[in-house]
Amino acid sequence: MEKIILASGSPFRKALLANAGVPFTAVPADVDERAVEAPLEDSGTTPEEVALILAEAKALNVSERYPGALVIGCDQTLSLDDRIFHKPRDKEDARRHLLDLSGKTHQLNSAVVLVRDGEVLWSDVPIARLTIRKLDPGFIGRHLAAVGDKALDSVGAYQIEGQGIQLFEKIDGDYFTIVGLPLLPLLKELRKLGAIDG
Hints:
Blueprint: E1 4-6, H1 11-19, E2 25-26, H2 33-37, H3 47-65, E3 70-80, E4 83-85, H4 91-101, E5 105-116, E6 119-124, E7 127-132, H5 137-147, E8 168-172, H6 175-179, H7 183-192
Parallel strand pairs: 1-2, 1-3
Antiparallel strand pairs: 3-4, 3-5, 5-6, 5-7, 7-8
């Protein structure tokens, strides 16, 4: 079997791959995401394309250091219409995120790519659509106090696998896309490439 590298330090992504029985090494990419994203602003680039460009940048960065390895790159953007949200800087920023998302349907665009020796072999950007119920500002404050700094770890200021599930009214999309590693299409492609048993 060939060497598979996950170009991410995310504990969620590592756990998903490990639980699926994929043998891999995690090597976080050395990419300044905001620097990659900056020229894309006001360029007409869609949130889905931004996620894909960031995922490719991460995979290509790690691929340079590991010749011959199959590198998985991933990134996720959260978009509300054409606005892209970033991880909240602090609790106040997280509060604003949740107020902005309250009562609306947003998209999680989860890009995944496979790269070997600087060449993109495959990519996909599954989308999940999530509707947050109309939130009372007082509840938002209590919720953020309960979850603590975990609210700063994700673009939407929530973890759907934890107490964040209480924020939602409706979810269209699979769990893996929501947590940021579209596992089913990735496993299918790894089998097709002969990188895992299939």
